[in-house]
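Minutes, project check-in

Agenda point 3 was the complex the collaborators sent over. CS summarized: four entities, 632 residues total, and the question is how they sit relative to each other. Sequences were read into the notes so everyone works from the same version.
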Amino acid sequence: MKPPAWRQDRALYPHSVRVQTRYHDEDRLGHVNNIAVAAYYDEARSQLMRRTFELTKGLTGVRIVTADVRVSYMGEVFHPGDVEVASGILRIGNSSWEIGQTMFQNDRCVGVCSTVLVQASAAGAGAIVPELRAALEQLLIVAPSPNPTRPPASPAPD
Amino acid sequence: MKPPAWRQDRALYPHSVRVQTRYHDEDRLGHVNNIAVAAYYDEARSQLMRRTFELTKGLTGVRIVTADVRVSYMGEVFHPGDVEVASGILRIGNSSWEIGQTMFQNDRCVGVCSTVLVQASAAGAGAIVPELRAALEQLLIVAPSPNPTRPPASPAPD
Amino acid sequence: MKPPAWRQDRALYPHSVRVQTRYHDEDRLGHVNNIAVAAYYDEARSQLMRRTFELTKGLTGVRIVTADVRVSYMGEVFHPGDVEVASGILRIGNSSWEIGQTMFQNDRCVGVCSTVLVQASAAGAGAIVPELRAALEQLLIVAPSPNPTRPPASPAPD
Amino acid sequence: MKPPAWRQDRALYPHSVRVQTRYHDEDRLGHVNNIAVAAYYDEARSQLMRRTFELTKGLTGVRIVTADVRVSYMGEVFHPGDVEVASGILRIGNSSWEIGQTMFQNDRCVGVCSTVLVQASAAGAGAIVPELRAALEQLLIVAPSPNPTRPPASPAPD
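CS then shared the predicted structure for the full assembly.
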């Protein structure tokens, strides 16, 4: 159930952003609280999705719904200090896809995050439209060989 | 991988709180954003843990670390309107335990959440102290029979 | 410059709501941080404005802009524990009005807040429309006599 | 009552930081909500105070309490995009001082903020200790001549 170790290798992720921590993200123990950390992943995800839509060159009318977010906390985050969030596409299914992320502070991995997103319409979930699928494929994380990201028999996330 | 359907049955959870939504939890689509929803689960968890420590009748010196949080979003949350978060202990392992939660708004289930917490000390993770274990056991979720919460052969979360 | 003492008398305000504090509103000193307190006032204001629009019985097309918010912190706020925020209209000018608020926790006043709102349109600020003015007048704070809220010579906030 | 126009001249402020806006700071109207803007000022203030304490070369045991915060909103803030917050000391009184700030986004002034802080001890407010006063003086905003920051007859903020 634990994310594989290679998920902590930020060099494998195609997208990276720095996110500022804030004074009020600290809790009474003097470290950044879990919800603030979840918000940093969320902010990096919103930038990855913006990049994805740029790659579609103008796709509109597609609605994206967050179905599932899992954050694994592996180290404390402190303020002041930025975090680096590396992000990419982990798997692409029929109507959904999974974003993988890892967070670093001062070159120390502080966690990984996996998020399942669904393409939805008024009629419910539907097959990912070709322009979006092509854009997602450009942002795939290339997992190391023994743990291929998309082995032929891999179950899709949906 | 999906949480079993009984996880959406709030009657099975021993602890319940109402959490207020806030105007600024809304996003530009007019529903409460995912991070705010994660914060509602977090607030309910902090109340469950406070209840747990009350049940230990004075346990101190134990540090709890959040290791893993997974939120499954099943429906949109709107403001204004409270949410009800039902919480309980899903599994108890050697040094960690899992909290299960489900959220309702207007009698509609909007999601479930699973959180792994670890008892930590300066020396790292250690076996849950007896007072804390006894308190956690009083707050167990009683899963329906075909899906027993603690079958004899169940793997502990750690 | 300081708000007059009667501003701390919650009985003078026509509108009151309870707002829950949250675990993550606490800072590292163990009290609720200033931004969270500002957010409680903001939440109560949004409810006062919702009430105002209910009183207009269907006014639409009016855009409200926040021009100025001043929070005077008079005591610490703690979690767990709700706060009570009492709100009302302090002054009504030509195109703007001022909301007055005071916050209590456990029957102790922890501060007051004053907010100037402006009715705006694409063309800029304009005179408050009659339906809105009538609704605002129903929610006026009645200041004690030596400090009348609306003395004849009082300058309007705009 | 309005802050003087020179308060929007960021060149007059001795301290400046860039603060990232976040996706979830947006409200349903598509601009950054007022509380998030207040939090950006707050974050810049915490950095100014950190700088102040660095200038004291090791002062400890002094507790600072926020007494009053006033934010004047002059333009909308949008995401994505950083804001620049320029900060400095506006006035120094006996036991309190005032921080002045102005915020820019894309070279457009979007507001100013004034904050009164008090040096407190267990016994209540007390005269600012000399090390702190000397540090605050190094961070004064130099107001233009017709509106001197510290005219001889100017009332101190406390």
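Noted in discussion: Strands of chain C lie at 15-20, 63-73, 82-92, 96-105, 108-121, 124-125.
Follow-up: revisit at the next meeting once the mutant set is ready.
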